[in-house]
Amino acid sequence: MSIDDKLLRIRFVVDSGTPHIIVDTTRCAGCSEKPCLFACPVQCYKMESHALVFNWENCVECGTCRIVCPGGAVNWNYPRGGFGVCFRFG
Amino acid sequence: MNKFEAIIIGAGPAGLTAALVLARAGKEVLVLERGEYPGSKNMFGGVLYSKGLHELIPDFWDKAPIERPVTRWVISALDKDASFSMEYKNVGYAKAPYNAFTVLRSKFDCWYAQQAEEAGATLLTDTVVEDFIWEQGRVVGVKTGRDEGELLADVVICADGVNSLVARKGVIRKDLLPEDASLGVKEILAMPAESINRAFALTGNEGAAYTFVGAATQGIPGGGFIYTNREKVSIGIVIKLSSLSKMSKRPEDLLEDFKRHPLIWPLIKEGENREYLAHLIPEGIQNSSKSLYKDGLLAAGDAAGFTLSTGIRVEGVNLAIMSGIAAAETVMHCGEKKDFSEKELSIYPLLLRKYGVLADIEKFRHAPHFLKNPRLYQTYPELACQLGESLFSVEPGPKKGLSEIVKEARQGKQLSRFDIIKDIYAGWRGLA
Lengths: 90, 432
Description:
Chain A has helices spanning 3-8, 25-28, 36-39, 64-68, and strands spanning 12-13, 21-23, 45-48, 51-54, 74-76, 84-85. In chain A, 21% of the residues lie in helices and 20% in strands.
């Protein structure tokens, strides 16, 4: 089962247009490690035509990117109350 | 503006325990939860040890949504196609007062919140705390994301979990570094109860807890786990964030590889994915008393970094519950004195010690260092499996004695006798 199929089974209450994490990708260009690319367990961070792209829609709010980012590019917040990931089993 | 005696941030085991104890003592207490319901943001392995909660809610197992009492504990060194295990089975654990239960957090945390509410606590979900309200250098309330969302209290308890954005705004805790945290990724697999019993050698509603080192994380510091629920299996891996940052293996791929391991797959092959989860675990955080409280403010549970991992036993929820009791009793003490300053709150570390939280963390303070040893995750699991192979295979010709077997395996791994002695000493120091 691919990660995309697994993500489909996670319940999200999507707060359209209000990202809870903002990544200052201008800082990422100079980052040689980019640990976010493989540390994020839901693949929110991807390289697209040589630039780092961040998508917050599948974020499970674990906080990994905030801690592994060496360049302080991740401005990490909780989603607004009641929004975001909503684990059904936990 | 509303004023409460205590505001608790986070409806997890730490916050809800504090709320329950305070509400029973007649205090006006408000619990703020950012999720849609308690547990909706929470994940653990998971096993809940029963004795601490039993003291708060006698015979809670008759009412709480527990999954299975754990009677089988298996710890395995895992290699590519072999494993060397240690099993502890106790059928006495299948009856009161039990020892530990598997639980699913979304159900359990909701039930636990209900107990706090029935005791008189107020729970407000869908509410993010954005900051504190300060007055002359002390915390006097919180600002929430709601309209007119300012709330005042004599004291605020931060039980907002591992990321604890709020506790850091209270300058109560330094931020986590990759060395201080592990990432847990897990899947919930639906499986009929009979299949679970067959695969895990269980009878009736008994449960199993499996932990693995070695090939479970492909030699990366961390481990794998499987816990059996009633009709679901929780399977996951935990990886040290500092190791994850250094290598290019994805956590979700490591988990999938672990599931597909030839010794793991037969256990779970009938399982169907119901949920994929990820969460951080604080590990090896050395607290100074200054990082636990401040004028008008206390931290409990994961927010304070209260977890204990000795490799064999992993505790988080249990320490969260105990720290919730200690926080509540601290608040009651301060209430009697009508003083919520650091001077009176300083009883908190003493109570944490009394309830075993700080005592255990201090006792096993060398464990995090010991558990950083990379040999634990590759060399020794492989060595154990090689020993197994030598012990259980018969070759033509003269047989080797145990010392020869160890020596050969050791030389193949360039593991000196001194390394082993050193590691045994570190293990003894960390865990004994």
